[in-house]
Amino acid sequence: MKKLTTLKIKDHKLKEKKVPLQMLTCYDFQTAQMLNQTELDLILVGDSVGNVVLGYDTTIHVSLDEMKIFVAAVKRGAPDKFIVADLPFGSYSTVEQGLTSAVELFQYTGAESVKLEGAFPYQLELIERLTQIGIPVMGHIGLTPQSVHELGGYYVHGKDEDSANKLVQEALKLQKAGCFAVVLECVQKDIATLITNELSIPTIGIGAGDKTDGQVLVFNDLLQMGPKRPPKFCTPVANLFELKKELIEQYLTDKKKVKNVEEESSVH
């Protein structure tokens, strides 16, 4: 599969017969090597690494230095994929800070783009500045995990008219600022469809229905690699947590049996 570019991703919107763009998260070199051999379109190295790999309770604890390590590892493992790198909480609180952080992350890791949450005026200015200097930006609205405390929790967005209108306007502003695509997370299905129809750039949904131009899921949720059931919008294709546990338990049982046999043989 030929590697995507921002031009091809934006052009995806114009195709009459298209298969939705597929994006998965990835946080490590070996998983990236595997994904590099698949038909996957994009890889997101998300700040969800904080929850999934580092054990933080929210994504706000993830630092820029941590993101640099994980994004670079994924890029080394998947050189043929379009890599999107999350700018973590606190790394773009101002336009100037955001420019410095994005350049550092982009330059150090070799990622093809960065992603940031929100559509406040200073963030729109930051997106414009980043695209002007050659750093592609993916937007992200709806449920923005870095703002979970300010939002008051995790919930579906766009349920009422004011919230829906706000989302549509944010999406249009992100497009105008220069984003090549926008993630819609936990957005009411009909509003996600409306936004998708309004924009000329692709929308990538997560918990936003099936009418967006693409979908993104956390790799570890898709394979259920943790002990807890993934969010309801994700239907796991396997339960690797239980499978790996069973394999380890079988390995330990077999080793104990071998040891017991050896001890009995030495006695006799």
Can you characterise this structure?
With 268 residues, this protein is of the alpha/beta class. The chain is built from 11 helices and 8 strands. Helix content is 45%, strand content 13%. α4 (64-77) packs parallel to α5, α5 (95-109) packs across α6 and α8 (161-177) runs parallel beside α9. It is globular. The protein starts with 5 loop residues before the first helix and ends with a helix. The mean pLDDT is 92. This is 3-methyl-2-oxobutanoate hydroxymethyltransferase. InterPro entries: Pantoate_hydroxy_MeTrfase (IPR003700), Pyrv/PenolPyrv_kinase-like_dom (IPR015813), Pyrv_kinase-like_dom_sf (IPR040442).
Topology at a glance:
Elements: H1 6-11, E1 21-25, H2 29-35, E2 42-45, H3 49-52, H4 64-77, E3 82-86, H5 95-109, E4 113-115, H6 121-132, E5 137-142, H7 148-151, H8 161-177, E6 181-185, H9 189-198, E7 203-206, E8 214-217, H10 219-222, H11 240-267
Parallel strand pairs: 1-2, 1-8, 2-3, 3-4, 4-5, 5-6, 6-7, 7-8
Helix pairs in contact: 2-4, 4-5, 5-6, 8-9
Keywords: Cytoplasm, Magnesium, Metal-binding, Methyltransferase, Pantothenate biosynthesis, Transferase
Subcellular location: Cytoplasm
Active site: 185
Tally of alpha and pi helices: 11
Low confidence ranges: none
Total strand count, please? 8
Order the strands across the largest sheet as they lie in space.
1-2-3-4-5-6-7-8
CATH fold annotation of the largest domain: TIM Barrel
| CATH H-tier superfamily of the largest domain | Phosphoenolpyruvate-binding domains
What's the architecture of the largest domain, going by CATH? Alpha-Beta Barrel
The CATH C-level name of the largest domain is Alpha Beta
Helix vs. strand class: alpha/beta
Radius of gyration: 21 Å
Tell me the helix content: 40-55%
Number of domains: 2
How many strands, what sense, and barrel or not for the largest sheet?
Answer: 8 strands, parallel, barrel
Mean pLDDT equals 92
Order of helices and strands: HEHEHHEHEHEHHEHEEHH
> What is the percentage of strand-forming residues?
5-15%
Shape: globular
Protein name: 3-methyl-2-oxobutanoate hydroxymethyltransferase
Family: Belongs to the PanB family.
EC number: 2.1.2.11
GO cellular component, one term: cytoplasm
